[in-house]
Design a protein that fits this description.
The complex is a heterodimer of chains A (about 210) and B (about 350). Chain A is of the alpha/beta class and about 210 residues long. Chain A has nine helices and seven strands; from the N terminus they run βαααββββαββααααα. Chain A is elongated. The longest helix of chain B has 29 residues, at about 100-130. Classes of the chains: A alpha/beta (about 210), B alpha/beta (about 350). The interface of A and B includes residues 34 and 197 of A. Bound molecules: iron/sulfur cluster.
Amino acid sequence: MDEATIPISALNQYTYCSRRCALIHVEQTFEENIYTMRGRDLHERTDTPEESGWEDGIRIERALPLWNNRLGLIGKADVVEFHGETPYPVEYKHGRLHKYENDDLQLCAQALCLEEMTGQPVPRGAIFHHSSRSRREVAFDHELHNLVEITIKAIRGMFSSKTIPPPVNDARCRNCSLQEACMPSAIAEQKRTRLLHENLFRVIDP
Amino acid sequence: MHQLLNTLYITTEGAYLHLDHDTLKVEVEKETKLQVPIHHLGGVVCFGNVMVSPFAMHRCAEDGRFMVLLDRNGRFKARVEGPVSGNVLLRKAQHEAMTNNQITISIAKNIVAGKIQNTRQVILRGARDTDDQQDVLTLKATAESLGGALSRLSNCEDLDQIRGVEGESARTYFGSFDKLVREDRESFKLNGRTRRPPLDRMNALISFIYALLMNDCVAAAEGVGLDPQMGFLHALRPGRAALALDLMEEFRSILADRLALTLVNRRQINKNCFIERPGGAIHLNDEGRKEVVIAYQKRKQEEILHPFLEQKMPIGLIPHVQARLLARTLRGDMEEYIPFLYR
Ligand code: SF4
């Protein structure tokens, strides 16, 4: 991946935990290693984009490639509805894993791509929650636009310095699929490392 | 922690392994002997003359599942590998660490400390398990001497010294290894460590288990994106997986030697499980190999507490976790590599 280009998904990851974002994109840690491939295969099968087309008079594009050259963003939208000429991105979420803010940020980044691609303003979009089958509309205000730009800058800085931030080691880790690669508690608690290292050369019998 | 996937070991020579949709099928004399969904497997190991279809190879390589071809005695012959992927920054850090004396010394030292600690535990356990006072005395003395090696190790300042302590403690350990054997001591006498080829049954048995363990260590290193050939303790040599050998040191006694002893002491392996070749080389026979492979697989499923991560996990996952800890150390996330200590 071009260092200057940022995948839209990185915004969501970065807001969740910056280390997570760095592990995936800087270290290329695969979220799926051979042990979780089984899960990935299932995922791929269910996420295969269906045909795009017309539904209830609205044009629907699925798995639409997105980009914004000004911001150096690339990505893909689950669904973009075209309300007349106006694109309306809809992002599908499986669990309740992420906080709203992450999802809104991701959706707004999609909107910024669609604006540049189509030349049309994109004022709104929606998050569709699978578990509750409910749709929540998000308005892309000035504040959200700003947040997207700030986040992109922060991510770009992290990518070019190739640094991996320290782990947050809090409740977020429990739901994080990168736990095994990240080892949050082992790294956050260096005191434990030091103690174990001292004892490594001592004879201590139980 | 993810569930440990099985390794499929094919020990029947003349078997044919091929892919049928998402299932691997093993045929022997045109008869399907085994079918496993490929998703259930972490990798495939073939012993001796086993045929593998190209598509089965493609699929394993694509998925990152390892496929290893060994000769019938477990010696490494070839690995089917997909495109190199993973973490180029980690590999760079690994190569840089190798040229940094301080990092090399600290990693090598910690690995050897882990090895000596674990061998010492195996010796002490043997001393607890026997009623023979003479054996107890010998084993206790060995444990004592290994303890001394640890404190000498902490003062080592270069690789040669570290390797010296390592070699010396290995000789001490194998010197009283016979005292850990409780059944048929006559047949399982260890005449020092002889590798190429093994010249007694005990050597043949542990060498074979080391070969199994070695494949798991290579897979563990590759799995986290480390270069298995670039080691710290072991000198670089073409064709040698020096890092996997490094990683393996802390597991030899607790995973391989203890398994060998259990198999002998429970009479699951007896002297009839071996063949002697003209000239004196000794190898496991078909039956022996099968017995060992099954026992090894079972052992890998047993759960154990990882003292550093403070988590329970299957034993087979430990090499993978240690490879990860090593990777984290190389990336500067941790100050020291902490080996797995068996208690
Ligand atoms: S395990 Fe925790 S610290 Fe590590 S990437 Fe995930 S959320 Fe971040």
